[in-house]
Design a protein that fits this description.
five-stranded parallel beta sheet; 10 helices
């Protein structure tokens, strides 16, 4: 058991620390590293524990891991493409590095492009504001990516005020209402993000279908765990309600969820990122 725990610890640490080397730092990364450290501590001190402590520790780590695996599988179930002939797209923005789209944003633009190409009567609402480290808004970046590939500007509508997924969809709904667009929408976003998008669409009176962009496998665990924590923190996975320790933090910090989770993760991740650059 000791060897197995140490192997799991090493794998988890590699999987969740690797994204730091490319500047990705969020709460999912921090949670994954913490779980890896727990497995590592259990492996290192296993022989020094009493038999009872060994049993409870192994059982606790097994249960946490099993819950995490099933929860991730449940979230990913909603990452399947269900859009057919929807006439309205909402493309959810994500990070822009200065003027350069992140890989995730590029993949979302690609998914939107191919759908727009196959559905010439479809319009797209490009949603995403401008972050503090972004030279242009996420919506403007998406528009450039699509128009550079030949999509007509008349089919693209920019929503540049949102700072969270909830605002992405809520502000996009206003554009839909103002222009009389079809409220049966297809959401273009990363596969791990579709469940939360679905709940927010339903809350805003939109009929939901999904067009999922694929996340690079090495980054998926970090973003998937982060998404789980965001879902739990909002206390809305299906019809279940979850009390969490994050409510204590949220009581004194009411920024939009996306910014809250990114900033908490960055507080932990940036020092590690700087150390990585210094060493390598």
């Amino acid at each position: 058991m000791q060897i197995i725990s140490l192997i799991i610890a090493v794998l988890l640490l590699i999987i969740f620390i690797f994204p730091i080397s490319t500047g990705v730092h969020n709460l999912g990364m921090a949670a994954g590293v913490l779980l890896g450290l727990c497995f590592g501590a259990e492996g290192l001190f296993y022989n020094k524990m009493s038999f009872t402590a060994q049993r409870y520790t192994v059982f606790a780590l097994f249960v946490v891991s099993l819950i995490l695996i099933f929860a991730c599988a449940y979230v990913m179930k909603f990452g399947k493409n269900t859009a057919t002939n929807q006439k309205t797209l909402i493309v959810l923005g994500c990070r822009v590095k200065g003027d350069v789209p992140s890989l995730a944003l590029q993949k979302r633009a690609d998914a939107a492009y191919f759908y727009l190409l196959k559905n010439p009567d479809c319009v797209a609402i490009l949603s995403g504001g401008q972050g503090k480290d972004e030279n242009i808004s996420e919506a403007a970046c998406l528009k450039k990516l699509l128009t550079d590939r030949g999509i007509a500007q008349s089919r693209l509508f920019c929503e540049e005020l949102s700072t969270s997924t909830d605002e992405n969809i809520r502000f996009s709904k206003k554009i839909i209402d103002e222009n009389g667009f079809d409220t049966s929408v297809a959401i273009v976003t990363s596969e791990y993000h579709q469940l939360r998008a679905k709940h927010i669409c339903e809350k805003n009176g939109l009929s939901f279908a999904s067009i999922s962009s694929k996340t690079e496998p090495l980054y998926l665990p970090t973003f998937l765990v982060r998404e789980l924590m965001a879902l739990i923190n909002k206390k809305s996975v299906g019809n279940f309600k979850f009390p969490t320790l994050f409510l204590l933090l949220r009581a004194i910090d009411n920024r939009p969820y996306d910014i809250f989770f990114n900033d908490v993760g960055a507080t932990i991740g940036r020092p590690l990122y700087n150390l990585f650059n210094f060493l390598f």
